[in-house]
Write a structure and sequence with these properties.
The complex is a heterodimer.
Chain A lengths: L10 H10 L17 H36 L2 E2 L10 E2 L3 H7 L3 H36 L6 H13 L2 H11 L6 H8 L14 H26 L3 H9 L4 H12 L1 H16 L3 H7 L10 H11 L3 H32 L1
Antiparallel strand pairs in A: 1-2
Chain B lengths: L1 H25 L2 E6 L3 H17 L4 E6 L2 H11 L8 E5 L3 H6 L8 H10 L2 H6 L1 E2 L2 E2 L1 E14 H6 L9 H11 L7 E4 L5 H13 L6 E2 L2 E2 L4 H15 L17 H7 L3 E7 L3 H8 L6 E4 L13 E9 L5 H14 L11 H8 L3 E2 L2 H6 L1 H6 L1 H10 L3 E2 L6 H16 L5 H20 L1
Parallel strand pairs in B: 1-2, 1-3, 7-10, 12-14
Antiparallel strand pairs in B: 3-12, 4-5, 6-10, 6-11, 6-12, 6-13, 8-9
Helix pairs in contact in B: 2-14, 9-10, 9-18, 10-19, 18-19
Classes of the chains: A mainly alpha, B alpha/beta.
């Protein structure tokens, strides 16, 4: 039997009925604002600008100015050890070098690929894991949810330097506990950080371990927003827990997942500490991510123009990824 | 009388104020950036205490960072007002730092004293275009380090003198079932990868750079690339056991310390790390000159030096105070028995001092230390690591190529071609 549908009403009609229910009598009282004089409007505008100025000024000073400066410097040859006045305009030469066949281009492209792979793997592991752990923490059937939530979040609070030092020892190929434990169950020692085939994945595992608690808390926050009545209705209709997850939980977590994915992408692209502290980009550049490479080129070698071109490319790539994420997830939402 | 007394007091007050203002102008707060570990920093602090007692008003603070962060720290904060006044640097960085006006040229008296008291080659490594920029302190060379116990167990009577003997020893020392490798490579650390390779290359009669141009396309270089390929392909060297971390320690060191690596080529400065890691087992470690390759005539190593430089953007007073402190620290009166305080600090780490009077002061100890003997024997034939503009980029590029060959991503032939092409492009670009 088809459900009865509510007749569509225009916004004007809805507003009118809402006003009528307001209890102002049969004749609805028109909504009106006192007419402002141009002087008042000017004063209002000035006060708005005055209140916004500190925040927007700070943003402009510490975000926009460096960003514009970096974009400008990317078209120059400039040593970071000299003043801006020494920057020499060279057009797109830096960007051409990034795409060229020399070691500049090869190293940049390898770092770009490593960053992309690290980001994809991190997000692909963190987001589903956070939902899974969120469900585990959020459930009320078994005790210990709050303890588990605390344990999971605690990894996020540990300073990265401590995490990096501990994990570098855990991963040690000969003395490391992980390989020793694997040996107990008959698995041969793994190379972890010592091989270009496994080093980046090892850093991803470290990142997932550290970050998943934070994203689990986000997932739990999203889960608490879903009305329990929906699950009750679904159970009455005979929906299995699996179906409830796919048809209720996941769609209603969409905004949370979008936020989590965006934050996870940004965090992953900015990875620096584990690489700087443990692998130094090696072996064979396999963990040389863009932030570390930009630091090496722009600061260690003082090639400010080239480093700026790399930073601009990274920024543009990040913008494209974030816009795509929003577009894909939002479009799917509208289709529903 | 009263007037005279008043005049005298006023005169005395003015004189006191003038003297105090002079002493205030002379007193300076300077800072010293280094990559030394905590034990060595303690020795430096002790020397500073002695200096401050003799020079009231002058204060020197030490800032220590890991080796991997030293150049970055120097570049990010070195030129600013808050940057270190003094920094210990590796000679290969000097041309770039001079070009970027980060370090100041030594005053004439400091330059004259340094020229008179250090070997000419070391002074040259601390100079750019004839001007001295730093006071040299340590000099490092490379030698073959081997584990005598493992040699005995493998039936090897003496350290290898040629590459053939070296490969034969590596084969005997390798036991994959026990996770033991004959020769330890190093990766993930530019100098750790490059210096042993360069030492084998010069011991085979080759060079990295001649007159500012790379010569990695030589026959000697070809044979050195092929040696590395053979070591890995035969399983005598396991690149997975070769990783280094930001503190220039890590699995490559752990494996030698724990007796899983039979031989390794390393610099003299790591003696303190070996002693700390091995304890009594350090007695098993012996050193020998680098084996001579088929195109070589004598055992050689590369050498490099470190120096202390002064921040060019520090105030004139700070720069003067910095040079004064460095002259004292490296001078013959600051240490024991005619040695400098710097010499004492270096010798505590097993590092060879470069000042002529320090070498004489520590002569007996250098001659009687069996570990350092392998290094001092090779010092006379050592070839300085090339100091060129873009040296760091050149080193990192060659490091990547050698690591790619270690992990089988490039053949020896490809590695040699890539190394030469990249080096040519890098050095030409940086020379512009």
């Amino acid at each position: 039997m088809p459900r009865p549908t509510r007749p569509k009403s225009s916004r004007a009609t809805r507003n009118k009925s809402r006003v009528s229910r307001g209890g102002w009598g049969t004749l609805p009282r028109p909504l009106s604002f006192p007419k402002q004089s141009p002087r008042m409007i000017g004063r209002h505008r000035r006060s708005t600008i005055g209140m916004l100025a500190p925040a927007t000024g700070l943003i402009a000073l510490f975000v926009l100015v460096p960003m514009v400066l970096t974009i400008g410097l990317s078209f120059t040859q400039w040593s970071t050890q000299t003043g801006f006045e020494t920057a020499r305009f060279i057009g797109l030469a830096n960007f051409a070098d990034l795409l060229g066949p020399t070691s500049i281009g090869r190293d940049f492209r390898a770092a770009f690929f490593n960053t992309a792979l690290y980001t994809v793997l991190s997000v692909a592991l963190i987001v589903p894991l956070s939902v899974l752990l969120g469900l585990l923490v959020h459930q009320t059937f078994a005790p210990g949810g709050i303890v588990l939530r605390t344990v999971l979040f605690s990894t996020y609070m540990v300073p990265t330097i401590a995490v990096a030092l501990v994990w570098s020892k855990l991963y040690s190929p000969t003395e490391g506990p992980i390989n020793q434990m694997l040996g107990w169950v008959g698995i041969p020692p793994q190379t972890w950080l010592s091989s270009p085939n496994t080093a980046l994945v090892s850093i991803v595992i470290l990142n997932v371990w550290q970050q998943v608690g934070y994203f689990t808390v986000l997932a739990v926050a999203g889960l608490t927003q879903i009305p329990t009545t929906l699950y009750e209705a679904a159970r009455v209709d005979g929906a299995s827990p699996w179906l409830q997850f796919w048809k209720i939980t996941l769609p209603l977590l969409r905004n949370t997942l979008l936020f989590s994915a965006v934050v996870a992408v940004i965090n992953a692209v900015q990875v620096f500490e584990p690489v700087a502290l443990i692998t130094q980009g090696g072996p064979v550049n396999s963990t040389n991510v863009l932030t570390y490479h930009i630091r090496r080129v722009g600061i260690e070698r003082a090639q400010g123009g080239l480093g700026s071109a790399m930073a601009v490319t990274l920024m543009l790539s990040l913008i494209v990824v974030i816009v795509l994420l929003f577009a894909v997830l939002r479009d799917r939402g509208d289709e529903r | 009388m009263v007037v005279k007394l008043g005049y005298g007091w006023r005169l005395a007050t003015v004189a006191t104020l003038m003297m105090s203002s002079v002493s205030m102008a002379q007193a300076a707060e300077i800072s010293f950036l280094t990559h030394w570990g905590p034990d060595t920093v303690k020795l430096l602090d002790a020397a500073i205490e002695k200096y401050e007692a003799a020079n009231p008003g002058d204060t020197v603070t030490v800032r220590a960072v890991p080796f991997g962060d030293l150049l970055t720290t120097l570049r990010t904060s070195g030129g600013g007002a808050g940057g270190a006044t003094i920094a210990g640097i590796y000679d290969a960085w000097l041309p770039d730092l001079v070009r970027d006006k980060l370090v100041s040229a030594a005053a004439d008296d400091v330059a004259a004293d340094t020229t008179a008291n250090w070997p000419a080659g070391v002074v040259s490594a601390a100079s750019v275009d004839g001007a001295l920029y730093g006071i040299p302190n340590e000099i490092d060379v490379y030698a073959l380090n081997y584990n005598k116990r493992l040699f005995e167990e493998a039936g090897i009577a003496a350290p290898p003198k040629t590459w053939d003997e070296f490969l034969a020893a590596a084969e005997k020392l390798t036991d994959k079932s026990k996770g033991e490798q004959g020769f330890g490579l190093i990766n993930s650390w530019a100098a750790g990868v490059l210096h042993p390779f360069a030492s084998l290359l010069v011991s085979n009669g080759g060079d990295l750079i001649v007159d500012g141009k790379p010569v990695l396309d030589s026959e000697a270089a070809k044979q050195t690339f092929e040696l590395y390929e053979k070591l890995v392909a035969s399983g005598y060297s396991d690149p997975a056991m070769a990783t280094a971390d930001a503190n220039t320690t890590g699995p490559f060191l752990d494996n030698f310390v724990s007796g899983k690596t039979g031989m390794i080529i390393m610099a003299n400065w790591w003696e303190s790390a070996l002693k700390a890691g091995m304890g009594d087992a350090f007695a098993d470690v012996a050193t020998a000159p680098i084996p001579v390759g088929p195109s070589g005539d004598t055992a050689r190593s590369i050498s490099y030096s470190w120096m202390t430089v002064v921040n060019a953007q520090a105030s004139a007073e700070e720069q003067d105070a910095a040079w004064k402190f460095l002259s004292w620290l490296n001078g013959p009166d600051s240490g024991e028995n005619g040695a400098s305080a710097m010499g004492d600090i270096l010798m505590s780490m097993g590092i060879l001092p470069s000042r002529t009077s320090d070498v004489a002061a520590f002569g007996d100890r250098l001659a009687s230390d069996p570990f350092l003997l392998g290094y001092t024997e090779t010092l006379g034939d050592a070839k300085p690591f090339p100091v060129v503009l873009g040296g760091q980029e050149f080193s990192e590029s060659l490091q990547q190529t050698l690591e790619a060959m270690q992990f089988g991503q490039l053949t020896a032939e490809q590695a040699q071609a890539n190394a030469q092409a990249d080096a040519t492009e890098i050095l030409a670009r940086n020379a512009q």
